[in-house]
Write a structure and sequence with these properties.
Elements: E1 5-16, H1 19-28, H2 48-61, E2 63-74, E3 83-94, E4 97-107, E5 112-124, H3 125-131
Antiparallel strand pairs: 1-3, 2-5, 3-4, 4-5
Length: 132
Amino acid sequence: MQNDQHHLSLGPLRLQVDPTRAKTYALETGGDGLSAPLAYPAVWLAEPKLLEIIQDLCRSQDVIPVHESQSFFYTLELALGESYDLYVLLKHETEPSRLIIEATIKTTTNKLVATIETILRLVPHDIMKEKA
């Protein structure tokens, strides 16, 4: 089975672990709010430059992104208030139709902090309408 793939690289995107946002996210997900949750980088998916690309892809194909999986592998802990560089590789697969987001987080001095993979299944709107 052949899998047609399209790739797009972004970055570095300089982002910060906002202490207030991290605390809120931690408390909402059962954490103590004293440190950045391991899944905190997931909030960076809503960064305008990245979100716009995902939304454009979904609109152009008339699909809805459905969360399939996500993994985080850390070599260093995220620090509240610190800035990091996020490098993103977007891979669009057609069989099955999905968007794979591979991200690398580095310190501003280029030390590896974490690697992340998020997989979004791209489900056609018409299938979602039939199930509603």
